[in-house]
Each structure stands twice: as structure tokens, then as C-alpha cells.
Amino acid sequence: MNHLLRGHAPITDAGWALLDDEARERLRSALAARKLVDFDGPKGWEHSATNLGRTTAVKETPINGLRAAQRRVLALVEVRAPFSVSRAELADGDRGADDVDLDALDEAAHRIATVENVAVFHGWPAAAIDGIAKASPPPAIALGDDHFEEYPRHVAKAQQLLLEAGVEGPYGLALGPEEYTGVVETAEHGGYPLLDHLREILGGPIVWAPGVRGAVLLSLRGGDFLFQSGQDLSIGYDHHDADTVQLYLEESFSFRVATPEAAVALRA
Amino acid sequence: MGFDQYHEPPDELSAQTRTFARMCASLTEEAEAIGWYEQRISVEADEEAVAIMHDAQGEEFKHFAMDLELLLRRTPKWREIAKGVLFQDGDIVEHGEAAEAAADSDAPACTGGAPASGSLGIGDLRGAGR
């Protein structure tokens, strides 16, 4: 048994399968960053830092005649989203119920997927993570309120900025939830779906990205945006009483931008 | 030629699955090359030629190991079973059966499987975007 302590939980094998399947389904739909940036790992819970290949000089040495430098690393951040599950509901699941109440798990999955997206696209200063949109050199392109029919023009302009910077495609687009809904619901003159038009411009995926404000266009050529996973998303056990089991979703990761000019932000 | 590693229409496969298939094909080719060098070395009388082939075979050992490591990293259940078998003393078949049973008890195959580590096995989702 590892640090997740799953073996201590009063949950059957079928119950764990139910929880894991539900979490997997919810997370896959909301983990937008992983659909667009390089993924390295998982390297395990013991993995603590990402090598940056850089050093800081150590000015004082206890013995003269030496030169010293200290390695710089990016420490991984641990993220945990607690939730509880009713033991009665789990027991019903063991009996074959197919409508087990797992709302708290769904909300926790959404929270932890959203924080991952926010860290990657907008940054998380307290965790020393610079986001893609913040690092991108050109000023963000204004999308304008609810003018979805203008999106092809804005996206084409952003793509032109990438090409001028020598950044090749294919390109992917992360859209905030409101922007995504607007795009899906919009048809251009002649009834052509806006979503399809944008896909043709990009040559890559358009991703629903909870936590993203506006949109971010980025190159998918690789090597520009680096997500490193320590422990990949897992469900662990905290404690239980007669009625509920307290569990959590957990992961550890770092993120860094290697090529800031390989993305352009579009603001709402 | 070229696309023999695919058993399903490539257009219907995700980028992730296509990469997986390519790496499986590469793993097979490295294993074949190791076997070929072993045979050539066993019949070659020229010591200089044998030394070169030993060096070349070493390259294939490395390639095979790198291919395998990548596949194991991206396939949690495979990794769990491999952990129970590789670099262990004793009966290989017994280790294999035990490792498979342990992986199955922790991650039922019918559910898509979580590894013994408790990970949900989500990993890299490139190719899964719309």
C-alpha cells in the first residue's frame, strides 16, 4: 500500500472501480491543458522537482580558492481536492445501483482539473508557475463581448502573429467555457458552423477549457510548453465515520514555458 | 509497407494510440536486431568484425530498453506487471502469474484499470482534443 492509503478505506473493489471510472470520465473532459501541451511523466510521488539546467552562484565558500554554484530547480506543486462519499450510496453501488450519488467527486474533479488549466494557461505565482498567456509577448487580442462571428478574424490574426514569429503549426485553441459555448452555438452566414470554420483555420483541436479566461492560441509543434507530472491524478483515502468516507483527488506537477512566443492570448 | 503496425484504420486511431503502435513496432524491430547480431556473432571468425557487431548489438540493447521504458510509462498495468517480473531472482513464471494477479486485483481489466499505484492512468491527453 502506498501513501494514498486506499487499502484502509471501507470501500470494496467494485466501489473503487466505480469511483475511479467516474473520476476518469470527469477529468478527461475537463483537463484541457494536457490536450495541448507536452506531457512528461508520471515520475512518481517521490519526484520533487523539475531540472532547469541552470545554476545560481554561491558567493561564499568555507575554503578559499573554490568556485561554487547551486542547481536551480522548479519544485513540483502538490494539489489535493477533498470530497466525501456516502457509505450508503457505495453500498447501493455494490448492490448494482446505477445512479450512485457521486456529485461531490464530480465537483472535486472539476476543481482540480480547473486549477491545472489555470496554472498552465494563466499561471500560479504562489507555486512559481508562469502561465502561457502571461508569458506570451504580444498584447492579448480583444475578442469583444459576444461577437462570436468575429472570432475567425481574431484567431487568424493571432495565427499570423505566430507565423511572423517563426512558430509553425499545427495550432490548438483553448477556449474558456463561455467562449466555447458561444462558438458551438454560432453559425456563420450560410449556416456554416463556426466551430468547423475555426478548425479549418487552425489545423488542430479546439478544446473546452474550464478556468481559461478568453482564449489561448498555441503551437502544438512540441518543445514549447512543458508539463511535468510527478504523481498523476489519483484518488486517496483520508478518514471515515459511520456515514461517510472522506477521500481526495491528488496530483503533483510543474509547468514551464520554454518558448513564450509560441502562443498568443485572446482576452474576453 | 510503412503502415503495417496498424491493424485498424489509422484515421480512426488517436494520435496517442498511433504512437503506442509505432513504439510497439520499434520494440519488435530492436528485439529482432538483437537476435540477428547474436547469430552473426556466433558464426563470425574475424575478431575485429565480432567486436564491431558486439558494439552494434549494445546499441540495440539500449534502443530496446528505451522503447520498453516509454511503453511501460504510458501503460500503467503493463508497468505494474513488469515490475513484478523484471530484475527478480527466482521462478520467472511464478513471478509473472503473481504480478498479473496483483495487477488484476487492484485494477479490474473490465473497468479500464487503475494501476496498483492508485493512479487513474490519465497521463497525456494530446490527440484527445476535439
Can you describe what's shown?
The complex is a heterodimer of chains A (268) and B (130). Chain A has 7 helices and 12 strands. Chain A has 268 residues and is of the alpha/beta class. In chain A, the strands form 3 sheets. In chain A, strands 1, 4, 9, 10 and 11 form a 5-stranded mixed beta sheet that branches. A 5-stranded mixed beta sheet of chain A has the order 5-12-8-6-7. Chain A is flat, with a radius of gyration of 22 Å. The two termini of chain B are 30 Å apart. At the A-B interface, α1, β7 and β10 of A face loops of B.
Topology, number of strands of chain B: 0
What is the rounded distance between the termini of chain A?
47 Å
Low-confidence stretches of chain B: 107-115
Tally of individual helices of chain A? 7
Beginning-to-end CA distance, first to last residue of chain B: 30 Å
Largest interface: A-B, 35 and 20 residues
Rg of chain A, alpha carbons: 22 Å
Query: How would you sum up the global shape of chain B?
Result: flat
Overall average pLDDT of chain B: 84
Overall strand count of chain A: 12
